[in-house]
Amino acid sequence: MILLLIIRICMIFNSYTSTIFSTSITCMNQLKCDNNIEIAFIGYSNVGKSSMINFLTNQHKLARVSKTPGSTRTINFFKIAKKKYLVDLPGYGYSNFSQNLKNTLKKLIIKYLIYRKSLKAVVLLVDIRRSFRKEDYTIINILNKKNLPILITLTKSDKFSKSIRERKMFKIKKECLLIHKKVSVILFSSTLHLGIFDVKNFLSTYYNT
């Protein structure tokens, strides 16, 4: 039993190193196939989506990382295996975007979340220092209606002591369970290697269903 657990842990940690970039889209009409298994990463601009993807796959330049918020303006697909994709959605809430661009990106994100049949689960990144904001609740409500599971990862968790970050996590989890039953909340920090197994375990669960 212990040996099987060790094997499973090793498989989870090594299962994404061969991930490759597949395609980018700017409108839903560019997506033809809708029978894949896709898990999307979403969150505010500069919350750390691209950095997390690079960390998970152990590839420093797979997803574009920028200190400037809003660098991801397309839906980017990364192929993990046959018919299995990791999806990097544009960040939302960047104030320096024009209203027209904000509306365009918002529509693209919402259409993907609502209409994409291949979407099986979502990783929602939230900066633990800022907690939840309006757009985060909008995303959770959309996914609740679709009955899709969510893993909420509280990034930048290394900025707080263990007791404070665990208190914040408990508070957020309590709030989220009021509007979505299929939600899990974890602490994440690439600096502390915190939460990496939880994220990979979540991905493996839905890629292998």
From TrEMBL:
Keywords annotated in UniProt: Cell cycle, Cell division, GTP-binding, Magnesium, Metal-binding, Nucleotide-binding, Septation
GO molecular function: GTP binding; metal ion binding
CDD domains: YihA_EngB (cd01876)
Pfam families: MMR_HSR1
Protein family membership: Belongs to the TRAFAC class TrmE-Era-EngA-EngB-Septin-like GTPase superfamily. EngB GTPase family.
Cofactor entry: Mg(2+)
GO terms, biological process: division septum assembly
GO cellular component terms listed in the entry, alphabetical order: cytosol
Ranges for domain EngB-type G: 35-209
Function: Necessary for normal cell division and for the maintenance of normal septation.
Protein name: Probable GTP-binding protein EngB
UniProt organism field: Buchnera aphidicola (Thelaxes californica)
